[in-house]
Request: fold
Amino acid sequence: MTKDSSIPVQRLGAGDSDRLRAINALFGEAFEDPEHYGDAPPCDAHLRRLLASDSFIALAASVDGRVVGGLTAYDLVKAEAETSEIYLYDIAVAADFRRRGIATALIDALRGIARDRGAGVIFVQADRDDPPAIALYTGLGTRADVHHFDIAP
Reply:
């Protein structure tokens, strides 16, 4: 498949709960984890609040009304400096639209948002057993080997 830079990327706003639901469904399919992304969906009021929040970023790439790529990120304001870091939380592209540059277009759109906000960096995690993600991120940035810990609340 060829790269297709004509697929538009849009930042979602408070009125785009349905599109955020479509992104979550895409994540569930792409990550082979539909239960996590669909079994207990948040209510519309929660999604509207999240989408209206300045600290949450959701981007969608759509073709003929279908969300074929999505990205969610969080703007983490720093306490030690007047800056922030953007955490790219999830990104996925529908299987039949991969290898067309959509993931890169989504990240490029996030880079523009980060620049506009004066963020110092965008960071993302990748599982060791996900070579496509590692290849994508290696082509866009520098790698830092860190340990990730989940701490129960």
